[in-house]
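From the pipeline queue, job 12 of 40. The input is one protein chain; the requested action is below.

Action: predict structure.
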Amino acid sequence: MRIKPMNRFEAGAIHFALSLVVAATTFTLIRFFWYPGPLFTGAGGVKLFALIAGVDVTLGPLLTLVVFVPGKWGLRFDLAVIATLQVSALAYGSHVLFKSRPVYVTFVKDRFELVRAEEIDSGDLAKARSPYRDLPLGGPRIAAARLPKDPKAAMDMMLSGIAGKDVQDFPRYYLSYEEVRSEARSKCRPMARLRELNPSLGMAIDRSLREFGHADADTCFLPVRAGARDLTALIDSRDGRYLGLMDARPWKY
């Protein structure tokens, strides 16, 4: 039986389908491991992924559609070059997402700061206490940070903060969030204020509270500076326990 030669549209369609599979696999990794929950939008994961997927799903198939001619001399080489370009673009984009992934949600003074992998130097990481000597791969850990008590170290930290690298970027000053729960509880704000700041998110707030088995009366919130869009951390108002994140505006701006 003679097999009909594939035309450029069929080749482009097959390439497009394969690209969709690769994009879906990459999405799973990013959405559920590196940028879980509200971090996918709040930490900019969705925009970076959209850029990567847009290039991956369109660039390769379009180039295949252009160059594919059955029986053309050098066709295999052309397709190999296209595949190499596509894989390189995907690898570079995934590397950027991996380096910028959230690794810590760190309580500082009266709020949480989202810390990304690229913001922590390996030298600073080596000076940290366990369990803060490594960067998590499956979503950020909860921690707290306090300014050093030594006057010189405090001054150095102040100057570093002016330059853009603050205490949350130094794991050597990390401690367990359990040690500052009472402090966080004293700083958190009532849910009535969160509802006032987000009048269109009443049902989303109700849904988040149900997920954590809480009600307004036993919950409060703190801001989370996340980068692309600030998020909200829900806190148990009775003991300061960290509950989780939600995509809601934490202050008026």
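Job complete. The beta strands are 102-108, 111-116, 141-145, 174-175, 189-190, 219-225, 231-236, 242-246.
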